[in-house]
Amino acid sequence: MLVLAFDTSTSRGGLALMQGGRLLAEYTLESPASYLNRLLPGIDRLLQDAGRSIQEVKLIVVSRGPGNFTGLRLGLSAAKGLALVLGCPVIAVNTLDVLAANFPFASLPVCTVIDAKKHEVYAGIYCQGGGGLNLAGDYLLLSPAALAERITEPTLITGPGLERYGVLWQELLGNLAILPPPELRYIRAAVLARLGLQQYDAGLIPNLEKLTPFYLRPADAELKRPASAAMP
């Protein structure tokens, strides 16, 4: 099965093509401002370089969020549009889960963080259990300081949220904050593809019409909408 995966949820996106568990090609998209213009041409280039055609794609995997509101809407819209043309399913994976999956064999707890703006972060804390990393509790939206209060043992903190708050967490947590090298702090589309394929194999295939971004916080446009506009 040829799997196409792409992520547009954070400051550094990516594309990957996988078949039979083997990575055929993977690209990075550096700027969210360029996602609109580079996503579809990037998919074309990815397929060309791998010697495949879009008609061969049998599964599309995309990041569901949380993350950049515009990027999430763009990614899901592109995934749905391609799926309707190709007649294939779409699997949407939580962005925080994908970040944690960069460290499948971590012996320490893993805390994934994404800058949520407004002096807050999206976060998830994962621990080993049942043969892999599992989310401990709920996905979180909270201040960086409040997140630090939840970390009481040495923890691997990863994700693009380190760009803004990494120094702060090191100051607040000292030796409890273990930070990976920069190249491991971002979503890899290949990891996204692997997680999506696992969900597909488990039969966890969502209804395409009901597939929506996972924001954790309402978009600003929703908050500014007049009450009358929200009525059916």
Automatic annotation (TrEMBL):
GO terms for biological process: tRNA threonylcarbamoyladenosine modification. Pfam families: TsaD (PF00814). It comes from the Bacteria. GO terms for cellular component: cytosol. Signal peptide: none annotated. Transmembrane segments: none annotated. Residues 35-147 form the Gcp-like domain. InterPro entries: ATPase_NBD, Gcp-like_dom, T6A_TsaB. NCBIfam families: T6A_YeaZ (TIGR03725). PANTHER family: TRNA N6-ADENOSINE THREONYLCARBAMOYLTRANSFERASE (PTHR11735), TRNA THREONYLCARBAMOYLADENOSINE BIOSYNTHESIS PROTEIN TSAB (PTHR11735:SF11). This is Universal protein YeaZ. It comes from Desulfobacca acetoxidans (strain ATCC 700848 / DSM 11109 / ASRB2).
